[in-house]
Amino acid sequence: MSYAESPVRELGPEECWALLRGDELGRLAYHLVDEVHVVPINYVVDDGELLFRTVAGNKLLAAALGSEVAFEIDWHDHDHAWSVLARGRLRVLDEVEEHRLDGLPLRPWVATYKYDVVGLRPTVVTGRAFELDRGAGGTGVVAEVGV
């Protein structure tokens, strides 16, 4: 992959959703009272909504309050990278909706019981792809600190 005019390329909505569907771990950022939290969650995409399980605690409280959140996934290798950001409000799914997880590949990474299902239906999904320049003769600018 080579970007003709810039090492940074905006990803379209379809590309962002394809990357979200192809991953299973991301970081959820939310504000609760006077603290900002960033936590890893494993998730699954279903019908334009990111779903994850949780237990009683800060994430569930943030969902019950309908908190605005940001959710991010990314990837890189030696030459390329991408990042996708989804923003919206959390919500707790009721018992009737929880069946949506039946048959979906959402499995906890830690062997704990997580009974509550939380959803994030993003209002904004954006992403960027990057062509990295890690060579010794790169054109990147190096800032001098304390000069």
UniProtKB/TrEMBL annotation:
Pfam families: Pyridox_ox_2 (PF12900). SUPFAM superfamilies: FMN-binding split barrel. This is Pyridoxamine 5'-phosphate oxidase. The lineage of its organism: Bacteria, Bacillati, Actinomycetota, Actinomycetes, Propionibacteriales.
